Amino acid sequence: MSTIVFGEVKKSSIKPGKTWKCHVCGFIFKGDEPPAECPQCASTGKEYSMVSDLQKIRYDGEKFDVLLINGSSHGSNNTGYMLDLVEEVLLERGVRYRRYNLNEFHINHCWCCYSMRDNACRYPCRDQLDDMPAFHEMVIASKAVIVGSPINWNNMSARLKDFLDRLNCIQNLYQLKKPGLTEGKIVGITVSGHEDGATKAAMDIYLYFQQMGYILAPFGISYRTHGAQYDTGTDTDYFLNDPLVTRKVKGMANNVVEMLFLRIEEKVKGKLSPVAE
After folding, report:
1. CATH classification of 56-268 is 3.40.50.360, yes or no?
2. Which of 130, 109, 108, 192 has the alpha carbon at shortest distance from 156?
3. Model confidence, pTM
4. Pick from 267, 276, 264, 239: nearest CA to 78
5. Residue ranges of the domains in the chain?
6. 149: closest CA among 223, 67, 95, 219?
7. Can you list the alpha helix ranges (DSSP code H) found in 93-234?
8. What value, to the nearest 5°, has the Cα angle with vertex 131 and ends 199 and 182?
9. In contact, 136 and 107? CB cutoff 8 Å
10. 88-144 per-position pLDDT tens digit
11. Which end of the chain is more exposed for a tag (fewer CB within 10 A), N or C?
12. Cα(253)–Cα(70) distance, rounded to whole angstroms?
């Protein structure tokens, strides 16, 4: 586990005469540089990419260890900082990883094919029209997934829920009496938020992975909230300067790595009894 695959957060060099798109709300801006603040949703210019750089994602087939998923609508904000800390650990430990901000990709709502008949939900997914098929392949190829989410009304983000809903085609393999592709893999979760709901959001996320045979790393959930008594505009400075954020998030990431080194997936493959529903 020594080769490092650097995170694949899209970066664009700024060139004059470009068209920019906000990954949060889809606003199109034309100018030499993105706006400092999106005029439509108030996000920072970090959420913009040049339209010419946006294209359907493809998986190149190269094996790697950890898939990092940022489920925040604001990929460059507090949840993004938490995944920056995760990256630091993976780099220090020599673990191969890939990182993606979901707000930069097109993921459709689940078509809920399973509700038509059991075998209508299948892998590969029937919906090949968006970016999710590449993510399906990477979920299967990776040995662990670390998910970051903000708290939206005591739950995960809507973007992340769409992503997790679309994993149903992999989970449904067990219902179709076919070999599973994810049992024994490791999951870690980090949640950031302004106020209440961190543990509920984290457990809601974990339930998806539990149904696919993932093992939650010991102390595999990290979270931090600021507090409703503070203005949300102060949250970022709080997260950046709170030592507990660093300790908790890096600790979770380290625990995921330690579980990877135990090679549990190899040891339990074919020995587990799937009881997913």
Report:
1. yes
2. 192
3. 0.86
4. 239
5. 56-268
6. 223
7. 132-141, 158-165, 168-171, 198-210
8. 55
9. no
10. 999 999 999 999 999 999 999 999 999 899 999 999 999 999 999 999 999 999 999
11. C
12. 14
